[in-house]
Amino acid sequence: MNTLLNTALELAWAGVPVLPLREGKVPFGNCRTCARNICGGRPNMKSAGTCQCPAVCHAWAAATTDPRVLTSPAWAPVWRQAVAVAYHPGGAELTVVDLDNAEAVAWARKALPPTRTVVTTRGEHWIYQGTMRSANAVRPCMDIKSRMAYVRWLGDGTGTVTALPAVVRALAGRGASTVRPAPQASTVPAPIGGGECRHRTPAYLERGICMAEQRITEARSAVHTTVYRTFLAVLSTHGRCGCLTNAHVERLFTAAQAKGETLRHCADAWANARTALRM
């Protein structure tokens, strides 16, 4: 049996909802039933995350603890292509503080109560018992992943899982952006400006990006059109002075991919919006 599938079954048996990841550590695309988002978005948004589609679908919502689903014929081709296993922490009643470099880890060791830690390629995951809303960039190089998010499985880690502390919950209330599954690395450059800068404070640009993410996330139909029009609006308002960075673009791509868009479509929509604005 596939090694990754074995790992997934062991986690599922322990009550941890799991899903496979493809190259780039991103979820597989929507199944044929949900192609082009004809289903209207992720089903069962209020559930623990389990998608009712016949194949792997809808990013974090595909996570399941049902071995019949994990070993079903519909999932077999996916496991042959998978490169990693991920899990839905919120579905397992967990919250993961994702610390992406040594400085973030050092801060956590001073500011957060100890708990189970898992070493990652760039830092550590701190795992707490309890759920909360997920959020990106709560501090430099620090994300919180719980409900409506997924985390790559990197092993059991060390230490004992402790209760989710108030200090972590408070971090998500400091203007952090809602988490989306990470997209494939994008080579689409952010626009290089030269025009007048309207961003007198970083909050102006941040508010614009957050509003754009929300607009894409809340789309219930015509997702392709919504993505393009949102990209067009962002570029029109924020794209001429050079303040818009690749990190901002990737956040928009993340939101679009979470709605079922492919990386290729995101790149095409971004390029088309730039062309329309003659940028």
Q: Can you tag this structure with a few keywords?
A:
279 residues, alpha+beta, seven-stranded mixed beta sheet, four-stranded antiparallel beta sheet
Provide an overview of this structure:
- Helix content is 34%, strand content 15%.
- Strands 4, 5, 6, 7, 8, 10 and 11 form a seven-stranded mixed sheet that branches. A four-stranded antiparallel sheet has the order 2-1-3-9.
- The protein has 279 residues and is α+β, with helices and mostly antiparallel strands.
- It starts with a helix and ends with a helix.
- It has helices at 3-13, 67-70, 76-81, 102-111, 166-171, 202-217, 223-238, 246-258, 263-276, and strands at 18-22, 26-27, 84-87, 94-99, 116-119, 124-129, 135-139, 142-145, 151-152, 162-163, 177-178.
- A hairpin with a 4-residue loop joins β5 (116-119) and β6.
- α6 runs parallel beside α8 (246-258) and α7 (223-238) crosses α9.
- The chain is built from nine helices and eleven strands.
Choose one word for the global shape.
globular
- Relative helix content: 25-40%
The chain-level structural class is alpha+beta
Average pLDDT: 82
**What amount of the residues lies in strands?**
15-25%
Give the arrangement of secondary structure elements.
Blueprint lengths: L2 H11 L4 E5 L3 E2 L39 H4 L5 H6 L2 E4 L6 E6 L2 H10 L4 E4 L4 E6 L5 E5 L2 E4 L5 E2 L9 E2 L2 H6 L5 E2 L23 H16 L5 H16 L7 H13 L4 H14 L3
Parallel strand pairs: 6-10
Antiparallel strand pairs: 1-2, 1-3, 3-9, 4-6, 4-8, 5-6, 7-8, 7-11
Helix pairs in contact: 6-7, 6-8, 7-9
